[in-house]
Specification:
2% of the residues lie in helices and 43% in strands. It has 1 helix and 30 strands. A hairpin with a 2-residue loop joins β8 (83-86) and β9 (89-92).
């Protein structure tokens, strides 16, 4: 087991990095945001490359690393007006994207320094507490994120509360299967088990409709290049409604991505009903690890989740969490060269 390494401070708290190595994979994790900072995976020749975007220093993480690799919440994705009603009471959250609430607000869980609760050769569990009223959320929330190497990579996000609230923790890693500094991901291939998607308005808030993907750019039921049919210059930033059956392990297969040049293949299964597929249009020669510059579409995010704006859409899967219950969200990644 590798001891945590101090890499800097944020608001007087030491930030540590933790490394896990097993099953041909190597991970670097940060206590800042319970964050996936590096993920080394072999290609068809056995050559390792780091396939997630990131930064080299705490200064650069804070300047250029917004959300990258982090556990985001309390509510990942968007809530219209930062407002919803819970048990007859209107709850107003922090508005950090114009008038909307995004990824937990301007001081969300992605910006907290989490504690290391437990660690072994194959796992690390981070934990943090969000007090009642934090970013406007009701209830004191205790959150945990566990990274575990077990026939691939498993990320498990859990939470409990002492009062009724809403929770939707998401992992915001950006993947480039050719290597984090290798250019854009538009030629990489994608298949998603999703027959429906959520159209959005000009604020990227779902309209409330649930539409078929048939005949649209959102139809990834058959494998095709990510860049083959982009829905506008901004690319993808939409929730796909997962339709794969739940397996005996409680997970549904949802996504398969493949890089023809390196042969790296990634398969993702999850407990959640939705997948936010985002192709990183905001990158603009953004500084990255190892002197890399991240262009538009430098990586794709595959955020399994409850649907965006669920607290205002009773027809969407509920994000409510009550005392005495445990929120649990699992993502399982398998990697295999081809």
């Amino acid at each position: 087991m590798t001891a945590p390494t101090a890499i800097g401070q944020i608001e007087g708290r030491e930030v540590h990095a933790v490394t896990l190595k097993s099953d041909g994979l190597s991970l670097k994790l940060l206590t800042w945001g319970a964050r996936l900072a590096e993920l080394w995976v072999p290609d068809r020749q056995g050559t390792l490359a780091d396939i997630v975007l990131g930064q080299d220093s705490m200064e650069n993480w804070q300047t250029h690393g917004t959300y990258i690799g982090a556990t985001c919440g309390r509510y990942g994705n968007r809530i219209a007006g930062g407002r919803f009603t819970l048990d007859g009471r209107v709850v107003q959250l922090d508005q950090n994207e114009s008038a909307q609430h995004l990824h937990g607000g301007s001081k969300g869980l992605d910006l907290k320094v989490w504690d290391i609760e437990s660690q072994s050769d194959r796992h690390v569990t981070f934990t943090t507490t969000s007090p009642d009223g934090d970013m406007g959320y009701p209830g004191t929330l205790t959150a945990r994120t566990t990274y575990r190497i077990d026939q691939g990579l498993q990320i498990e996000m859990e939470a409990t509360t002492d009062a009724p609230t809403i929770v939707n923790l998401v992992n915001h890693a950006y993947f480039n299967l050719a290597g984090h500094g290798s250019g854009d991901i538009l030629g990489q291939q994608l298949q998603v088990e999703a027959g429906f998607y959520l159209p959005v308005d000009d604020r990227l808030i779902p309209t409330g409709e649930v539409l078929t993907v048939t005949g649209t750019p959102f139809d990834f039921r058959a494998t095709r290049p990510i860049g083959q049919d982009l829905p506008g210059q901004g690319g993808f930033d939409h929730n796909l409604c997962l339709s794969g059956p739940l397996g005996t392990n409680g997970l549904r297969r949802c996504l398969q991505a493949y890089d023809p040049a390196s042969g790296r293949r990634m398969r993702l299964s999850t407990t959640e009903p939705g997948l936010q597929f985002y192709t990183g249009a905001h990158f603009d020669q953004t500084p990255g690890k190892g002197g890399a510059r991240y262009p538009r579409f430098a990586g794709f995010a595959a955020e399994t989740q409850r649907f965006p704006d669920s607290p205002n859409r009773p027809q969407f899967p509920s994000a409510r969490l009550d005392p005495g219950y445990r929120y649990r969200h699992v993502m399982h990644f398998d990697f295999s060269p081809a």
